[in-house]
Amino acid sequence: MVAPLTTAPRVVSLGVETFSLELARLGVAVEHVAWRPPAGGDERLAALLARLDARRGDIDAANKEALGRMVEGQPVLVDCRPAREALALPDRTVLHAGPPIAWQGMCAPLRAAVLCAVRYEGWAANDDAAAALVEGGGIALAPCHHWQAAGPMTGIITRSMPVFVVENRAWGNRAHATINEGLGRVLRFGANDESVVARLRWLATEAGPLLGAALRASGGLDLRALMAQALRMGDEMHQRNVAASSLLARALMPHVARAGDRHHAVARLAEFIAGNDQFFLNVAMAAGKALADPAGGVAGSTLVTAMARNGTDFGIRVSGLGERWLTAPVSTPVGLYFPGFTAADANPDMGDSAIVETIGLGGAAMAASPAVARFVGAGGLGEALAATEEIAEISLGAHPYFHIPTLDDRGAPVGIDVRLVVETGIAPLINTGIAGHAPGTGQVGAGVVRAPLACFELALEALALGLTDGEGRV
Amino acid sequence: MPAFNRIWTSAYHDSVTLMRLARDIEAVPGVRRAAAMMGTPQNRALLAEAGLLAPEGDKATPNDLVIAVVADDASALDAAENAARAALSARPAGAPGGGAKARPRTLDSALRLMPDATLALISVPGAYAAAEAMKALRAGLHVMLFSDNVPLDAEIALKRFALERGLFLMGPDCGTAILDGVPLGFANAVARGRIGIAAASGTGVQEVACLIAREGEGLSHAIGVGGRDLSDQVGGLMMERALEALAADPATAVICVIGKPPGPAVARRLAARVRALGKPCVAHFMGEAADAGAGAWHRAATLEDAALAVVALARGQTPRAREFTAPAGEIEALVEGAARRLAASQRFVRGVYAGGTLAYEAIGILSASLEDVGHAVTGAGAGHRVVDLGEDRFTVGRPHPMIDGSVRREWIEREAADPSTAVLLLDVVLGYGAHPDPVAEIAPALARAHAGADAAGRGLAVVASVCGTDADLQNRAGQVDALTALGALVMPSNAQAARLAALIATWAVRAVR
Q: Is A234's Cβ below 8 Å from some Cβ in B?
């Protein structure tokens, strides 16, 4: 129903600010847009945006459907079992983070982690033999995302590694992630010495089975509620997981204690979880993947369903473009460094953990986690709020379950829209760990990174021109 | 180089805070490298590996903060601790919560904040304006398109699209609208009332609205349609819709139409539409003569006469044109007084305008009694000439002269310095969106203009009108007083100002002969 022109207007004003100020002074309802030329004034992109705008009704309907599937998901942590069982992951297959990448294109930490995994699985006795095997094509390399999984940093998963199983009870799909190894020298940061392998063995032989038994006995832990609660406790669940890890431990430990008939094994696991503030990160990622996957494949939708990095390329997936990756060279995070390290030690951005930002947490929920905002700039609540408000500009909605207390319990911005990213030039903000680029270094710091705009521009072009992914899908 | 540690017992800080703290400590002179970490076994191992752990630090418990530096000597440790204390006690600038409210960056995001918005006021650069207007129409909003430089075919497409959806597209280049008392763009504070305006002109609406207000009547609505709407290409699409809306509006008793002369096809259609309105209608088409006869509408020759006519019709009276408000004798005295001081070389009227429609009106009135009047509002020609500084060519990359007086000052001084200029003819436009004190903006230029004329041993007549009301922020009475104090003859309307200017020029030439 169109309001008659001859009733007092409620005004959205784009351009001259004086006009908005005058209206506000008169008490007229007015919203001033801090307008800038769309797509930074790039005429080609503006034309593509206009093309999509002509199909606005269809796209909005598709996005509503896709976003609804994403936010109405019910992730439940149901199990932990080896990847060979949970994923039916075959022999001599190594999953890695990010979009697909060949061995030749991999960065040093990712290569080191692949070699470590090959040794760990016993497919080669040492790094040289492992490298020869990989180079000879004896190892299948594939993204975690292609296997219903998400891996932090290097993201390595092989068949004997235990993985958490998250079931999305709203739609029936599952997603997986390994057990977080903790800080220091760990596989996910490309460390590959014997201490790394030893920890992996302990995870596979003791921690994993214990967690699996506990989870199966528990009947599943409701992650949506747990994550909503952690958000209220200062976690954004990417950079900061201390509340979520504690909540998970609280829910899990009684079941672990009951399942673990070996007292010392329970104690070792309890100690391991207590010593790792990021324990929950991998669970959050599996939940993110479980929530995001059902939103994929909605024809015409411009919703981003995955963001992932492999240390070389940054890739996104978009609902209306199916399973295709839109990639661009990855950037290096800006951040703070552990003692003894500087920006010169940083590897370019890595990991599937940006799935957390894809579902409205991490950088998108910065306002819930003022402590983390100090990575962005001078820090404090003001900047945390600004960061979340900025992401709201490129998001399709507010999350119905994840509320941010510092924003008067508004929902976290969720559902990144390719159109809005290109129009505003605001790239998604990702909170991330920083790996050392020298193999074996491990984590050297933490910070933030922006997704490259080029991925979104490619996606916009594909959506506007109706390009298919080679299998006839638009 | 040695490492020095100090322990702050039971002092918990978040790791992010501590990483920033380390950066601050590293900036202290004498400190080579620094770390600030809680004393967990893992952290102490990290410190040791980085060469930052000293024996004291290794005694820290997980609840203790270790300040660790590598430095030339132990004195750097005190400076490091001081820096750490200062950094931890520093408050970030600004109140928690950031203070300023985040601004939406796009129309879409503004609509999320105001889902019940009804109108988009668009004043972005012309190259982007049509796209934004189309987005707004798609979102179901009426549009007031203030922007100029929108191509004709885009205007036609937008208007057809709007009509299909029952929406208005006011513009492009629509400077003024007043909807149910809400002023949009450049508009004046006028009372609510029974007169509706539909206009293909911005300052035309302002002049008519202010004169109506001065006569004691008020406006129901003023709907702008854009300067090209009445052309046969656009076909008066929005003017017809505006007339329909005003006809249907119970608050509107009489209607006033303002614009450039319509194309022949549009003129025929509008006349038919006006006959069917059922409400008295006055029209002013710039440059066209008055016609109070049996046509569909009462045709007024000037904006002032249109205002007077529509007021008369609202009151059931017979419209009468007005030449001057003041008695003839007073006008004669004004003319003679001004013209007597002019030198023989000073023969021409030079108009320097901010309002486009007012500039056109001035040309029309000057042309009625003077020869050698430039036809365009470009300020070109050696004779009488008028410039509209609100034209696109003068506003590229600069604010409109109603907002900023700098271009206006340049032109006033330039025209005043021309020895052939007899009369400077000016408009001053008040209201929402305009400069808070426009007379003060041009005062220095007027003072220099007079000083220059004095120095050259000649006079200079300055004739002006002030388009506005006493309810405007700038207060019309105050602006008139200020102009008068600057030596200007301030007339009640632009039409009267142009007439007076023409009389002064005529008198001056006659006197020389």
A: no
Tens of pLDDT along A216-266? 999 999 999 999 999 999 999 999 999 999 999 999 999 999 998 777 999
Strand intervals (E) in B65-218 = 65-71, 119-122, 142-145, 169-170, 176-179, 182-185, 192-199
* Per-residue model confidence as pLDDT tens digits over B10-35: 777 777 778 888 888 988 998 999 99
| Strand order across the B421-429 sheet | B385-388, B348-353, B421-429, B461-467, B488-491
* SS3 (DSSP) at B497: helix
Q: Which of B16, B21, B65, B76 is nearest to B43 (CA)?
A: B65
What's the rounded Cα separation, in Å, for the pair B428 and A233? 60
Per domain, the residue ranges of chain B are 3-89, 174-314, 328-512
Q: Does A276 touch chain B (CB under 8 A)?
A: no
Query: Is A40 part of the contact surface with chain B (CB cutoff 8 Å)?
Result: no
The reply to whether domains B174-314 and B328-512 share a CATH topology is: yes
**CATH number of the structural domain B328-512:** 3.40.50.261
Asked if A356 and A244 count as a contact pair (C-beta separation under 8 A), the reply is no
- Taking the model in full, what pTM does it have? 0.81
CA distance A446 to A403: 25
Integer angstrom CA distances of residue B418 from A343, B346, B423, B487 = 66, 9, 11, 19
**CA–CA distance, A171 with A294 (Å, rounded to integer):** 7
Per-residue H/E/C for chain A: CCCCCCCCCCEEEECCHHHHHHHHHCCCCEEEECCCCHHHHCHHHHHHHHHHHCCHHHHHHHHHHHHHHHHCCCEEEEEEEEHHHHCCCCCCEEEECCCCCCHHHCCHHHHHHHHHHHHHCCCCCCHHHHHHHHHCCCCEEEEHHHHCECCCCCCCECCCCEEEEEEECCCCCEEEEECCCCCCCCHHHCCCCHHHHHHHHHHHHHHHHHHHHHHHHHCCEEHHHHHHHHHHCCCCCCCCCHHHHHHHHHHHHHHHHHHCCCHHHHHHHHHHHHCCCCHHHHHHHHHHHHHHHHHCCCCCCCEEEEEEEECCEEEEEEHHHCCCCEEEECCCCEEEECCCCCHHHECCCEECCCHHHHCCCHHHHHHHCHHHHCCCCCCCHHHHHHHHHHHHCCEEEEEEEEEEHHHCCEEEEEEEEHHHHHHHCCCCEEEEEEEECCCCCCEEEEEEEECCHHHHHHHHHHHHHCCCCCCCCC
How many inter-chain contacts (A to B, CB under 8 Å) are there? Answer: 223
Answer whether A241's CB lies under 8 Å from A281's CB: yes
**Interface residue A436 vs chain B (CB under 8 A):** no
CATH architecture of B3-89: 2-Layer Sandwich (3.30)
The class level of CATH for B174-314 reads: alpha beta
Q: Domains in chain A, please, with CATH?
A: 1-35 (no CATH), 49-71+296-464 (3.90.1700.10), 75-287 (3.90.1710.10)
* Partner-chain contact B131 A339, CB within 8 Å: no
The complex's ipTM works out to 0.82
The three-point CA angle A348-A349-A354 to 5° equals 175
Q: What phi and psi values does residue B12 have, to the nearest 5 degrees?
A: -85, 135
A26 at interface of B, judged by CB pairs closer than 8 A? yes
The residues with which B77 forms a beta bridge, in sequence order, are: none
Contact A38 B23 (CB under 8 A): no
Nearest Cβ partner for A6 among B33, B50, B221:
B221
Q: How far apart are CA B176 and CA B222, in angstroms?
A: 8
CA B136 – CA B147 distance, rounded (Å): 14
User: Phi and psi for A299 in degrees, rounded to 5?
Assistant: -55, 130
Give the model's pLDDT for residue A230: 95
